[in-house]
Amino acid sequence: xxxxxxxxxxxxxxxxxxxxxVARSDFPEGFVFSTATSAYQIEGHAFxxxxxxxxxAFARQPGKVHLQQHGAVACDHYHRWEEDxxxxxxVGLDAYRFSTSWARVMPDGVTLNPExxxxxxxxxxxxxxxxxxxxxxxxHWELPQALSEKGGWLVRKTPEAFARFTDVVARxxxxxLHNVAxxxxxxxxxxxxxxxxxxxxxxxxxxxxxRSMHNVALAHGLSxxxxxxxGVPGVGAACNMEFPLPARDTDEDRAAARLxxxxxxxxxxxxxxxxxxxxxxxEGFAPHMPEGWEKDLERIHAPLDWxxxxxxxxxxxxxxxxxxxxxxxxxxxxxxxxxxxxIAPEGLEWLLLRTAADFTGDTPLYVTESGMANPDVPGRAxxxxxxxxxxxxxAGLRAIERGAxxxxxxxxxxxxxxxxAFGYDKRFGMVHxxxxxxxxxxxxxxxxxxxxxxx
Length: 455
Ligand code: IFM
Hints:
The strands form two sheets. Strands 1, 2, 3, 4, 5, 6, 7, 8 and 9 form a nine-stranded mixed sheet that branches. A two-stranded antiparallel ribbon has the order 10-11. Helix 7 packs parallel to helix 9, helix 8 runs antiparallel to helix 9 (about 205-230) and helix 13 runs parallel beside helix 14. It has a single domain (about 10-455), classed as Glycosidases (TIM Barrel). The chain has helices spanning about 40, 55-60, 75-90, 100-105, 115-130, 145-150, 155-175, 185-195, 205-230, 250-275, 280-285, 295-300, 345-360, 385-400, 445-455, and strands at about 30-35, 95-100, 135-140, 180-185, 240-245, 305-320, 325-330, 365-370, 405-410, 430-435, 440. It is α/β, with parallel strands linked by helices. It contains 15 helices and eleven strands. The model is unreliable at about 1-15 (pLDDT under 50). The structure holds 5-hydroxymethyl-3,4-dihydroxypiperidine. 5-hydroxymethyl-3,4-dihydroxypiperidine binds next to loops.
């Protein structure tokens, strides 16, 4: 990792306030504050003619998802979206980052469900009527099960089908979007789901991991072409990144952290911005790359109007030599969220600076996700979340002071929702959801955010 010395994360000085220490006025003029959700996590896929997704199939397999929970009802946002948008307007946020479900718009991945498209049309108009900028993500993980059964992200037909889905969505709502990203967190779509097997479809192994890492990158490229052809404004990307730290002060662990950084952080951004894949990662990936992959890089590499970083935590890497990739992750000493993720805001500052310096240059950066899971109950202030966000807002401000072109910050998430393999057990929301009554109760962090935005 060049030029930036890794600061050692130290939260000893962090306190647990009930107010943010920063104010909107500390950020540059026009800075966009937003919150995010995704379709399958909140809408309720039993409604409106949505098709089965690979998450429905994955959740049915015993042992894959907490209590085999799924997104059939989720937060019932399909019926309660107006109430949810009112919350966003009333707290004073500038924008809302939502996603369009492929399985809602095209239940089998191919055939149009007009009712599904109508839903997003209403949602976008509803945002604009409330003065909220619509920030769309086209794919946030609800692959139609019919496409999964035909090979999903392991086959080239899926990125091609994704381009057709992009076309349908762009024609209908593309004229009213503030900005758009094709794929949320490509690393999760590919590596987490096809190498680690932790997310749908639950595949494992290097060959599956590598093929999906290329096909998901290609999906981004093909989708960007379609968005550009329709003149959709603000075309970008939202990649998840982790702060890679050597577990011990050794050359071997530094190499382990570097390789982890390559697979997790650099693979997609380098392909998108330079049209190459990182050499250190290709060393291990090359034998498994799909035929003709080199030619696809021209299409994956296309100018972007903005680049988004989703950031939650650091990761500590230790060298292990029995198989490639030569690393394993080890637990660290910092305070952790309910996900067991270490809280390391310095990593956000480092990643924003490194992304700009090495890949994106002057292109505006957004934090497209940032937040924490906490076992919140109504009536108890979620001071941990206020402290977490405050530390990360301050990390964003430091990155701006050091030259990063950070233009906006999105908090994950608007409300408690379906946390994938963790079901409804992990609460990321600034608004509490009672999943029996569907009652929404804003938490202390939500109120504090509103006060911060007014200062
Ligand atoms: O809930 C997820 C989201 O879907 C993608 N980014 C990370 C969040 C927290 O795990």
